[in-house]
Records
---
Amino acid sequence: AERLGAAVYHQPMNDGIDFPTGHPLYAGMLPPHNAVIREKLSAYDVAFIAGCHAFMPHHYTPGPAVPDGLAIVQVDEDPAEIGRNFAVRHGLTGDLSETLWALAGHLDGLVPDARERIERLGARHAEERAKVEEAAKAAYGASPMDPAAAAHAVASGLPHGTVVVEEAITAGLKLREVLRQDLPRSYVHTVGGGLGWGIGAAIGTRMGDPDRPVVAVLGDGCAMFGLQGLWSAARYEIPVAFVVMNNGEYRTLKNTLDQSGGSSAKHGEYVGMDLAPPALDWQSAARLFGIDAVRAGSAAELRDAVAGVKALDAPLLIEAPITGHGDDA
């Protein structure tokens, strides 16, 4: 990327971070909608895809993700991935790391204005990130928190080197916008749409890498699918912080129905998508399984609670009440 002065995107709903998110060339995650992906890619002549499912949407929008005229070069370790979902101009199969190093060596000096491009893109990306962070900080307040403010509070409170296990769905999209990570193996997610894996994955991540703090950021609906995993964390004394973004609903499903324009959206009736009333008592649920719990009364309290995870010697659940679908202006 630096040899070319090229912008770098993560694939939609990327399941790991393999490029530093504070780098001047980092442009963020491609949104999981064909129409938005197409709009982003229309600014480019060539897209280089390295070992990922580049343009996989989670919600249907009319039209393809790839704009007309975009030349695609793809490299992957799996030959079945080359040209699987879109036509490629050139396809390469081989070890990803070795191939990228070899390609980088051949690019020296081929783009004379690469340094200028890095500076120009870096300034643009820094401005975009600053706007997102300023908006999130402006939304700080008491619980229930604005989801963007809660996400920013988590991101700003993380001790350096923390591994984030993210199963927060709609709040997770806000977290991705403000999360700054520069170490490999610092972010765990799944590309697919299954729910309930986050608690167990966080426990396994901490057991597999015991020298790094682990923070699981979970939607309340997601956590309900794997709640019994809290007992395992208590039983084996795994010091993981479980941050539950509690909006009392399956908001992503409501958003999907809104986008489809069906009767639920028209009448404001979303059957089976609310987790209240009665409201879930997350502190009692945690203590049922033998885990201490705290409730963040504001974004600032949430940030401070996350900042303390490095000193944990036992699991902790942090409840973060956030506004929901019906609270949108």
---
Amino acid sequence: MSEKKAYPLRINADVLAAVQRWSDDELRSLNAQIEYVLRDALRKAGRLPKPQGDKEPSA
């Protein structure tokens, strides 16, 4: 697992409340939910690097 870095986040109160409700529904911490949403968006945009252990299958 990669190293975790702390980062202060300024966020709109309504957005924070919505993410908090979502994290409660998913039984995640607020921090874990924010990381989950960011990772999902990065993956969908093709911007999340693949883990080093994953190799492309050769054809």
